[in-house]
Structure formats: structure tokens, C-alpha cells
């Protein structure tokens, strides 16, 4: 007869070992799955630049590139167009104020000036004739008054004599009355002439003022017409260096066209281009430093042009203290523009990453230096060497600062030796 054999139960310690093994397997599988889900970029460590975050004084400066330009430049434009007839000065030469530079010819302008001259002269003559006529009328009225006053005196004397003779019955009353009537008539004529003189004088003054104003305008117009003709001879408005005169004999220049440029070279300025990132931080009065021929010089911002072109804006700087004596127009200088006072901050060296991330995140290395993970940061000011770190990193952290162009979409960088 068969005997039933009972199966022995596993000891508890074996079940414990099996559980620990299962947990380990699950942990490994989970890690492998997690690693697989993280986008990792593998690269040789020698191809990257790794920098350490440090605590130090942040110098708020930015490098700018400037060009030496004259402080004052005067442009020469053609007031009236014409054909270049003669060039009287060489480009690059030094000229004095009023010195002839260029002779233009313009036949149409000459005819126009001659016609204006004739018309203006005719109008001036007509106004002069009117003025003379008014003066003649004034003199004639004065002559009439003189005659009238003379007749009144003669008649008054005759009347006085006839009054005595009439009292002695030596003249007839009719003869006396004729003289008296003539005197009364002459007095009325005199009064009328006085009224006419007053009216004529008022009219003469008004017309004289009008004529004087019209003649002044005509003379100004004539002078302007003549000056436009004289403008065909281009003269230097200021003393300086004739840095530009791009003209050729026989060339036709239109009205308003640029003829050349004169630079006043007793004082220079620096015209620099600044990255638009600093447009709100650059202001007149800020200082800049540069080195030339082994010596250091200082300059200050004179004017800021707010217009942004091609990612930069323009500033004008003037030399402070002693200016270098060996600069030339168009010479290029490398300057450090100070934007603020030094401040103790976390500093991260600049690199290609700043263009790829805008300073919003970086790849920070772990303690062993085998992996670098993406980390969000907050940056502040920048200079030509460092960017100020405000959040996301600590002193001693190591960061990949080379360009991220090939790994910008990755979450982790694996460094191989």
C-alpha cells in the first residue's frame, strides 16, 4: 500500500531572501527605465569647457568698440545744382573759412537771375516814381498855401487902407466890399488848402511806409537772387580738413546733393556701438577706459542715441583729462564702459552657452563629474568676463559653459574620458 508523502514548507528565511531579490530586480528595472526615459547626450569631456561658480566682486563693465571721429563736421551741399567747372582744393587738404573750393556753372540759373534782376529793378523804379510823385504833390500844396497866405496879406492891407478912405468918403462902398469879398474868398481857399494838405500828408505817410516795405523786400529778393548765383562758387564755411570732396570736372550736381565734408580737427570724439542688451543701462556721464600705445586713457559718455539698428545702438564719448595726441579720424579703439560700482556676487564665466540659453538655464555637473543635468537659473548683469548668478547655483558648482548648440534639447550630458 502506497504512503502519502507530505511536501515540506519553505523556511521563512528563504522567503525573505526571495523578497529581497525581487525588490532588487524591480529597483534595477525601474532605474533602467528611468535612465532610458531621460534624453542623454554623450560627449568627450575634452570637447567641453567646464567652469566653476565663484564668489567675487562683479565689475559692471562691458566692452565696446569705438571709432575716432571729429567732434564737429560740416557738410557741403549744392545750394543750386550745376556742372563742376573747376576744383579749387584737394581732398585731404586743410582749408580756411571762406576759401573757394569748387566752381559750378548753371546757365538756367544765370538767365533766371538776370530776369529777376531786370524785373526787380523795374519795380524799384516804379516805386521810386510813385514816391517822387507824392513828394511833388506835397511841394505843390505847400506852394499853394504860400500863394494863398500872400494873397490874404495883400488883401488885408488893401482892406485896411480902404476902410480909412471909406470913412473920409474917398472911395466908394462898392470898391471896399469887393476887396472884403476877395479877402473872405481867399481865406476860404486857404482853409481848404490846409485840409487838403492834411489829407495828402496822411496819405503820403501811409504810402511812403508801404513803398519803403515793398522796396526793402524787393532789394532782399534781389540780394537773394544774386547770392544764389554767387552760391555756384562753393566756399569753406569753417576752417578745418577737407576730408571729402568726391567731384570730377564736368560732373553734374543736382540741387541739395552732397559735395563734400569739412572736419574741425581741434577736438575729437569716440563714436561707439553698444549691444542693445544695455540700452536701458547706458546714460550720459558714465566713464570708459581704454589703452593706447601702452598708456591708459579715460572717456565719458556724452550722448546716447536710443535708435537700435542691427542689434546695437550708438553712443558718443569725449576724452577726459589728457587726450591722446596720436589719434586719427577713423581709428578704432577697444574700450571698457563702466555701468555701475563693483558688487560682491556669484560669478559664472561667460561662454557660448549664454547665446543658446539666454542665461536662463545651464548644464551643472554632479559631484563625480560624470553627468551634467539641466538646471534653471536666474542671471543678472554681465560684463566681458562674467555673468552674475542670482538663483539656481552655489559657489563651487561646476557648469558647462561652452556652446549648447548640439545638446540644447537634452536633459542630461554624460561625460566620457
Task: Write the SSE topology.
Layout: H1 12-37, E1 40-44, E2 50-52, E3 54-58, E4 61-77, E5 82-87, E6 94-95, E7 100-105, H2 107-167, H3 173-230, E8 233-235, E9 240-244, E10 252-253, E11 258-275, E12 287-292, E13 295-309, E14 312-320, E15 332-338, E16 343-349, H4 353-357, E17 361-365, E18 371-376, E19 378-382, E20 386-391, E21 398-400, E22 412-416
Helix pairs in contact: 2-3
Structural overview:
The chain is an alpha+beta fold. It folds into four domains: 41-58 and 343-416, Beta Barrel (conserved putative lor/sdh protein from methanococcus maripaludis s2 fold); 61-68 and 266-338, Elongation Factor Tu (Ef-tu), domain 3 (Beta Barrel); 73-105 and 232-253, OB fold (Dihydrolipoamide Acetyltransferase, E2P); 108-230, Helix Hairpins (Orthogonal Bundle), CATH 1.10.287. The protein has four helices and 22 strands. The strands form four sheets. The protein has a six-stranded mixed beta sheet, with no helix packed on it. The protein has a six-stranded antiparallel beta barrel with strand order 4-11-14-13-12-15. A four-stranded antiparallel beta sheet has the order 3-16-20-19, with no helix packed on it. α2 runs antiparallel to α3 (173-230). The longest helix has 61 residues, at 107-167.
